[in-house]
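=== Structure Prediction Worksheet ===
Name of assembly: unnamed complex
Input type: mixed (protein and possibly other molecules)
Chain count: two
Listed entries:
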Amino acid sequence: EVQLVQSGAQLRRAGESLRISCEISGYNFATHWITWLRQVPGKGLEWMGRIDPRDSYTVYKPSFQGHITISADTSITTAYLQWSALRASDTAIYFCARWVKGPTFDYWGQGTLVTVST
Amino acid sequence: QSALTQPASVSGSPGQSITISCTGTTNDIEIFNLVSWYQQHPGRAPKLIIFDVTERPSGVSTRFSGSRSGNTASLTISGLQADDEADYFCSAYVGSSVIIFGGGTKLTVL
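=== Predicted Assembly ===
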């Protein structure tokens, strides 16, 4: 069974760093890109970027470039999303998902709520 | 890349059919013809219900169907059921590994 299990909710202050995780199981981690998406509570979904676990090649949505880092550790089949300096506007729910092709993400993590206070 | 345009809300009675539109441009929906739809219940992760404009993943009800005309994709739900009440999001590929989403449509089953 394919599963993406994300780390728990986080509360941080603006300016602090954070890394959240997405542990993958049930398939060969190297065969599918992993993507991260943001959802402000009550709002829509926003694609942030993706990583190819085979070579850690990443692509970011331009508006997130330089603010986030997506990485992956194939030895523990885990993908990460991290910030070096959080902003209050980063408050949202973050989802990881398995990329199939185009805009198709077939398995999703349960989501991680990140709250950033000023 | 601009977001796709969806109606904010739609509603229907049990047993009826509804259609949710998703309008893009010639640079996304029309040129790449790669559109997916997701259903999201409150407090849950999105669930893939349509991919490649018209295809249903295994296990998704045949009551869900997708189509496209020009730069507008559509999701039709037939035989509405109470559990269909959720938010629905369309998404499209715009090249260079970049994805855009619609703002979402809240479906109310009356």
